[in-house]
Amino acid sequence: MAFVTAPVVDGFPAVARRLPLRTPFPGVRVLAASRPGERMRRIGEYTVFTGIVEELGRVVALEVMAEGDSARLRVAGPLVTADAAHGSSIAVNGVCLTVVESGSQAAEAGEFTADVMAETLAKSNLGELEPGDPVNLERPMQLGARLGGHLVQGHVDGVGTVLSRTPGEHWEVVRMSLPPNLARYVVDKGSITVDGISLTVVEADADSFSVSLIPTTLDLTTLGRKQPGATVNLEVDVIAKYTERLLGLNSTATERLPGLDGAAAVPGQGRQSSAVGA
Question: So what's the architecture of 158-238 in CATH?
């Protein structure tokens, strides 16, 4: 489930809270605000992003808890924290995290703190972060705003590695590795999220893919700085995963779908990884 945002008509947000608004997208719910322009209050359980990075933040601290099963991440991002409160969602390098402290509560204005579970640390590149590292930051989208990228859940499907960078006169082609279980979701000219950035695939192979980065992306995101060997969080297009499930092509998912015969699924196509995020 995800949610997007929308103002409440005639100033009655309580109506929207009692009657959740539905959208054409599976699992998407609508947020409500008492008047246009106000940051939205959450009705659904999860968020949806667009992959358009709002701000290049900076890691202040990453403190691993004594039990070793979680960590507390503190990030400086004046723009995304301007209206952040306890319970708000912010995508950090493509991972949806829940704000537990912001503003003065997080020690300094313009900073926020989020808890990161061991699963997320293990299956994303957040566990590699160090103080001073840049991170891509984005707040949830608002219904009615332009969808400049594509629907991004903030649930990382896997981790890739930068393989090569080929500079051009005004752009740069970057090739990254692709986990085998995600290859079927990535196609030429399709969408993929890399460290929270919505990108168009130039060329997709069985174990890698390439993207072309314009100067704005190079200047304002982490991909302008990552060299071969660096890791990146990957989230494939959720529409492709929903389509696979509905068509019964994923044997693992099909077994859980009432009315579909799992025996008709393609052998060996069961999902082998779980996405992580808030």
Answer: Beta Barrel (2.40)
